[in-house]
């Protein structure tokens, strides 16, 4: 297997494989990376999936949002060029740069899987995101997302405890300022010299470009989109970290999460990233389950 540049990539692949085992009709797998950014996750999947699914027809796509305001100019052209070089195929027609308010440029029920890595905490409208996910997934499809919840104790971008728990920018800036004065945070690592300016700018970042949600809120949003939501794969991410630290080989298919995994996920949501899996399960049929009596 190709080495993963990030444990997050390896984990997302393992969850997709665990969920779609035996559910890729005709040996075909269509997958979308929603918020593909630099394309590193897509590049890893393009190299790893043919090894896990020899002979399968793989159809990989990605999109990112061009009006979010946090990416450097020209980054998406660099993503395409880097993926072309890494995989030896053209990605120009496989990647799309859209507006935050645009519909996703994929047909209804056209994809087996949608994935994202550290994206959902930046989504402005999770209800719309989940509705688009439900629209593009085939029945039996799955969506896998790794990201920090609002519960997490240390804001992961700035490494400042509880900064994202404050609603107002003044309170956020104060939290950033005082935390970094105590030596906690990324102010010095960013080679900044003006702490006040740094605090104000990053308070602006948290207000405008992050949207942390709770576990319960996201489950409710998924229900509105008629998707089945679970966080039970979350402990597998931490197990994978421990295996990597111990020098043990990576796992590319997980055991089915049980009830204890759900309880562990409730605790781990305060630590770091959680794993949200959304399933498009349309197994209930009223006529099939309650047939009309034969006259």
From TrEMBL:
Q: What protein name is recorded for this chain?
A: Ubiquinone biosynthesis O-methyltransferase, mitochondrial
InterPro entries, per this entry? Methyltransf_11 (IPR013216), SAM-dependent_MTases_sf (IPR029063)
Q: For this UniProt record, give its keywords in alphabetical order, as a comma-separated list.
A: Ubiquinone
Keyword Kinase carried by entry:
no
Record the organism.
Methylobacterium jeotgali
Pfam families this protein is in?
A: Methyltransf_11
**Stretches assigned to the Methyltransferase type domain:** 32-142
């Amino acid at each position: 297997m190709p080495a993963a540049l990030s444990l997050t990539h390896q984990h997302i692949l393992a969850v997709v494989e665990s969920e779609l085992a035996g559910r890729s009709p005709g040996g075909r797998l269509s997958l979308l990376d929603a918020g593909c950014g630099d394309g590193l996750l897509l590049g890893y999947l393009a190299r790893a999936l043919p090894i896990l699914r020899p002979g399968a027809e793989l159809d990989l796509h990605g999109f990112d949002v061009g009006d979010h305001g946090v990416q450097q100019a020209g980054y998406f052209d660099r993503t395409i060029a880097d993926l072309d070089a890494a995989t030896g195929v053209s990605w120009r027609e496989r990647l799309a740069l859209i507006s935050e308010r645009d519909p996703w440029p994929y047909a209804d029920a056209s994809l087996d899987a949608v994935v994202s890595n550290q994206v959902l905490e930046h989504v402005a409208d999770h209800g719309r995101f989940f509705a688009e996910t439900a629209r593009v997934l085939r029945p039996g499809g799955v969506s896998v997302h790794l990201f920090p919840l609002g519960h997490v104790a240390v804001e992961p971008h700035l490494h400042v405890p509880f900064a994202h728990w404050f609603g107002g920018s003044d309170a956020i800036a104060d939290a950033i300022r005082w935390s970094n004065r105590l030596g906690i945070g990324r102010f010095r690592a960013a080679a900044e010299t003006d702490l006040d300016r740094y605090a104000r700018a990053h308070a602006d970042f948290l207000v405008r470009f992050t949207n942390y949600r709770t576990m319960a809120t996201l489950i409710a949003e998924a229900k509105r989109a008629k998707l089945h939501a679970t966080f039970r794969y979350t402990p597998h991410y931490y197990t994978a970290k421990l295996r990597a630290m111990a020098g043990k080989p990576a796992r590319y298919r997980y055991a089915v999460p049980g009830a204890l995994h759900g309880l562990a996920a409730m605790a781990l949501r305060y630590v770091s990233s959680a794993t949200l899996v959304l399933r498009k399960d349309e197994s209930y049929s009223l006529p099939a389950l309650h047939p009309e009596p034969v006259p």
